[in-house]
Design a protein that fits this description.
N-(1-d-carboxylethyl)-l-norvaline Dehydrogenase, domain 2; about 130 residues; 7 helices
């Protein structure tokens, strides 16, 4: 529950922050959209299914290690609004994703439906796991 009104509420704001950095890494030539998606589908964020970010830090990592990591990484996190240009270029070219068949990835309405099904099935499995662990 948000404790004061803000644009986007909690989940959308977190998603926008992640999207901004992902776009920045693509724009800066650090990683491809495919590689970023692979990391998000198979890597670190899967930990958040079982425990939230604050639970993980306080029950396992510790704020001392987080501080050390943040001091090293945060200065390199993109704070500019340059990614807006990248998004605007895609929109101007009509590269909207599955709606147009092209975006950063070649997508179709069929691939979009497959992604929706895959996501729904993952949520079903997570819910089953969650209920089993009660």
């Amino acid at each position: 529950m948000v404790q004061k009104e803000i644009p986007g509420f909690i989940a959308i704001r977190l998603e926008v922050a992640l999207m901004k950095e992902a776009l920045s890494m693509v724009q800066r030539g650090i990683a491809s959209p495919e590689d970023i998606d692979t990391v998000l589908k198979t890597g670190h964020p899967l930990n958040w299914v079982a425990a939230g970010i604050f639970e993980r830090v306080e029950d396992g990592i510790g704020w001392d290690l987080i501080l050390a990591g943040v001091q090293r990484v945060l200065p390199d996190i993109d704070s500019s609004m340059d990614v807006m240009k990248l998004i605007q270029e895609k929109v101007n070219k009509g590269e909207l994703g599955a709606k147009s068949g092209k975006g950063f990835l070649d997508r179709t309405l069929e691939s979009a439906e497959g992604t929706r099904r895959k996501t729904a099935n993952a949520f079903i499995e997570i819910e089953k796991w969650s209920q089993d662990s009660l």
